[in-house]
């Protein structure tokens, strides 16, 4: 074999080895960023979609708030304005508010009026007579002033519930106003137009572990999904869209072209190397391979391979070509990064840029940094009335005037989404910061010339200060957002510092209570009040429930709902609970000694006490100390805490039963697993929550429900106590139907022991 052939084979072998190394090392690195950018882009659009849904729910809630505090609505429900539907519930009303239905309920949750509207054919929609009843459980629950996703016969809806009051805020609620929007194909189409994507909605059976999901379908397409649960949590919906993998396709095409270019260049280089082959060429190739490996290991396309200009040959050309390739890739990479980190409309940084640059700005300015959360007042009105194009021009016009104020301070002016902007700036004095905020308000309020229109908007700004209001960006943004809404609440076109909010005084009050509670027991500020439990037949007293009260020396009586959670969190509950148990047994034992031996004492125990294994032995000591019969003691367990500590409560309840102490399930029906708890725990007594009795007997639904509860409980041979009795008609109805025990303000409010003794247990 000739040397020329051998040289050709040797050079060809090494050149092929080099090309393989180049393509196998650089190609994955180049495509990796594109893959991540596609996924990031999809995730960002999912976040935008989620924010749009949240915004829609907020709009519906605000619309409901506007109508529910309108005097005409109040008068209509009260029956004083019968012309209300004809005057106000026109097609234009639904077109302007984008609502699909409005339901008016009186203060007894009876239907006053319901009306629906189909936006697709612009005609009123006839709602079924039973339609409003789908919402009654929510109206009667603690979620009756929120906005929920609810599945109805018309599909998934966004529904808001608000009590109806006079605009002055005086008087009681006249009833409830329920408004909603149906999430259908038309809604998806409109929502998709807002964010420039085509959306589909479908019901899915599988549960989801994350709210969003990104799936790569193939080399060309990628899918994003947003999962929603309705209020009942029985149905799951998926909003999805499919997009092209633009970054991946573009990068792969570039890499393929680059591969062809490198291959052709290498063939030319091989022919030239046949004439110039020497020991220096091989070493240079090896050096080049090492440099490329270094680029791969560091995954840094800004690095360049070394080129020796003194040896102008094919290999140096290859080195320069590789550098040109890397430079081209770096340029494309920078362009892609720009798309990922800057808002395409205003060319301002977006929230992703803000997340990465925030801490750099904090370190640079020695932590003297403030967050300004800016929201344009009246933007939605202009955007809806004049169109999105004018709205976009308005956003650009306002941001263009504000940007120079921020650039002077080397701060960050970013568009957060919609008409919201976030500004991060340094400051020397707080007065200087307030001056900047005022200048921004002035610039935002100037006239905007948009094509043939001249319009004005104002801004509301919330301000949070680094260190003072938080150290993380999310915490500062949250507090600046709260302050911004306070500025809007006060009339808009103004600013508000988070530190100036009145909520700070509420926090201070809680801290004071926490400190005072540490000494409340030793200072004898805690009291026990007793509420009688009577027989439904003759109203004789069968027992009493012990309720702890805090008589604060300066703040007066403090609600247990406020200080009990504080006691739980600070570890004071075991001492307070033991004192309540000991003192109540001592006092009721004195009543047993004067002849009232059948009187039963009911005592509530906290979750801390039930989890404490030593508590049961302390109870034994107290019963022995006062010679109190265990069968006349009833321990009440609140249903709401059982689900989280079921195993511990089972052990605790079984220990009570071994001692012949009765176990009562308090607030029955307010939780999610009431019947399961009856099965799992050794319950003696069921205390029916007041929410099941407050509308009996005037409300047929509540009356039937109460009857069903009694039938189930009595069939299980369990005793019943009906709580929350406040009206004579409730007493008469229950007494006529059942022989049970009653408790409520109708018979007596909780009383101190001295008054209880004087009023009910005086021996004549």
TrEMBL record:
Domain annotation EAL: ranges: 510-764
Keyword Cell membrane set for record: yes
Coiled coil (residue ranges): 308-335
CDD domains named in the record: EAL, GGDEF
TM ranges: 258-277
InterPro entries assigned to the protein according to its UniProt record, in alphabetical order: CHASE4, Cyclic-di-GMP_PDE-like, EAL_dom, EAL_sf, GGDEF_dom, HAMP_dom, Nucleotide_cyclase, Rev_trsase/Diguanyl_cyclase
Keyword Metal-binding: no
SMART domains named in the record: EAL, GGDEF, HAMP
Pfam families reported in the protein's UniProt record: CHASE4, EAL, GGDEF
Subcellular location: Cell membrane
Record keywords, A-Z: Cell membrane, Coiled coil, Membrane, Transmembrane, Transmembrane helix
PANTHER family tied to this protein: CYCLIC DI-GMP PHOSPHODIESTERASE PDEF, SIGNALING PROTEIN YKOW
Protein name (database record): EAL domain-containing protein
Organism annotation: Metabacillus halosaccharovorans
């Amino acid at each position: 074999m000739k040397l020329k052939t051998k040289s050709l084979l040797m050079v060809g072998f090494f050149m092929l080895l080099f090309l393989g190394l180049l393509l196998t090392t650089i190609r994955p690195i180049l495509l990796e960023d594109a893959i991540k950018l596609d996924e990031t882009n999809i995730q960002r659009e999912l976040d935008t979609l989620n924010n749009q849904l949240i915004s829609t729910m907020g709009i519906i809630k605000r619309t409901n708030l506007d109508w529910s505090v309108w005097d005409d609505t109040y008068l209509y429900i009260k029956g004083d304005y019968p012309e209300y539907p004809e005057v106000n519930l026109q097609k234009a009303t639904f077109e302007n508010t984008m609502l699909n239905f409005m339901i008016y309920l009186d203060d007894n949750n009876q239907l006053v009026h319901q009306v629906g509207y189909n936006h697709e054919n612009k005609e009123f929609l006839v709602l079924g007579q039973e339609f409003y009843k789908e919402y009654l459980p929510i109206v009667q629950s603690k979620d009756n002033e929120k906005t929920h996703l609810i599945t109805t016969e018309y599909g998934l809806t966004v529904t808001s519930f608000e009590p109806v009051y006079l605009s002055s805020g005086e008087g009681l609620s006249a009833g409830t106003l329920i408004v909603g929007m149906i999430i259908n194909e038309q809604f998806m189409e409109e929502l998709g137009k807002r964010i420039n994507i085509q959306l589909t909605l479908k019901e899915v059976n599988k549960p989801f572990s994350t709210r969003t999901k990104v799936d790569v379908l193939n080399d060309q397409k990628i899918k994003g999904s947003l999962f929603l649960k309705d209020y009942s949590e029985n149905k799951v919906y998926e909003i999805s869209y499919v997009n092209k993998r633009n970054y991946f396709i573009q990068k792969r095409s570039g890499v393929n072209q680059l591969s062809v270019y490198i291959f052709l260049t290498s063939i030319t280089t091989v022919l030239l190397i046949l004439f110039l082959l020497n020991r220096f060429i091989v070493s240079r190739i090896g050096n080049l391979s090492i440099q490329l490996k270094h680029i791969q290991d560091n995954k840094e396309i800004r690095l360049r391979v070394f080129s020796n200009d003194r040896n102008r040959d094919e290999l140096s050309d290859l080195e320069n070509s590789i550098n040109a390739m890397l430079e081209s890739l770096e340029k494309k990479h920078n362009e892609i990064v720009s798309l990922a980190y800057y808002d395409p409309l205003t060319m301002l940084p977006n929230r992703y840029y803000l997340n990465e640059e925030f801490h750099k700005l904090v370190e640079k300015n020695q932590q003297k940094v403030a967050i300004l959360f800016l929201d344009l007042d009246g933007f939605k009105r202009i955007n809806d009335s004049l169109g999105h194009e004018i709205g976009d021009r308005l956003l650009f016009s306002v941001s263009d005037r504000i940007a120079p104020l921020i650039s002077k301070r080397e701060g960050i002016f970013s568009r957060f989404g919609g008409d919201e902007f976030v500004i991060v700036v340094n400051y020397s004095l707080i007065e200087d910061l307030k001056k900047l905020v005022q200048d921004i308000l002035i610039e935002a309020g100037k006239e905007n010339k948009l094509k043939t229109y001249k319009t004005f908007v104002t801004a509301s700004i919330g301000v949070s200060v680094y260190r003072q209001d938080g150290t993380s960006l999310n915490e500062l943004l949250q507090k600046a957002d709260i302050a911004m809404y306070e500025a809007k609440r006060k009339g808009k076109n103004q600013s508000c510092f988070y530190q100036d909010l009145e909520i700070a005084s509420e926090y201070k009050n809680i801290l004071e209570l926490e400190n005072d509670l540490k000494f409340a027991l030793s200072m004898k500020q805690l009291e026990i009040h007793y509420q009688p439990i009577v027989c439904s037949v003759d109203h004789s007293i069968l027992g009493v429930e012990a309720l702890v009260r805090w008589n604060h020396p300066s703040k007066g009586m403090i609600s247990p709902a406020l200080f009990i959670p504080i006691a739980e969190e600070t570890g004071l509950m075991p001492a307070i609970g033991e004192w309540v148990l000991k003192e109540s047994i001592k006092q009721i034992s004195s009543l047993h000694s004067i002849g009232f031996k059948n009187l039963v004492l009911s005592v509530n125990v906290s979750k801390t006490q039930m989890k404490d294994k030593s508590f049961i032995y302390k109870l034994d000591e107290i019963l022995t100390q006062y010679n109190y019969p265990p069968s006349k003691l009833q321990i009440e367990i609140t249903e709401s805490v059982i689900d989280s500590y079921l195993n511990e409560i089972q052990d605790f309840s079984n220990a009570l039963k071994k001692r012949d102490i009765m176990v009562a399930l308090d607030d029955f029906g307010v939780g999610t697993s009431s019947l399961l708890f009856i099965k799992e725990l050794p319950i003696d007594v069921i205390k029916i929550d007041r929410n099941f009795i407050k509308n009996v007997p005037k409300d047929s639904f509540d009356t039937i429900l109460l009857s069903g509860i009694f039938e189930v409980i009595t069939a299980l041979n369990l005793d019943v106590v009906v709580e929350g009795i406040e009206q004579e008609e409730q007493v008469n109805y229950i007494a006529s139907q059942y022989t049970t025990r009653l408790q409520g303000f109708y018979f007596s409010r909780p009383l101190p022991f001295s008054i209880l003794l004087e009023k009910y247990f005086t021996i004549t």
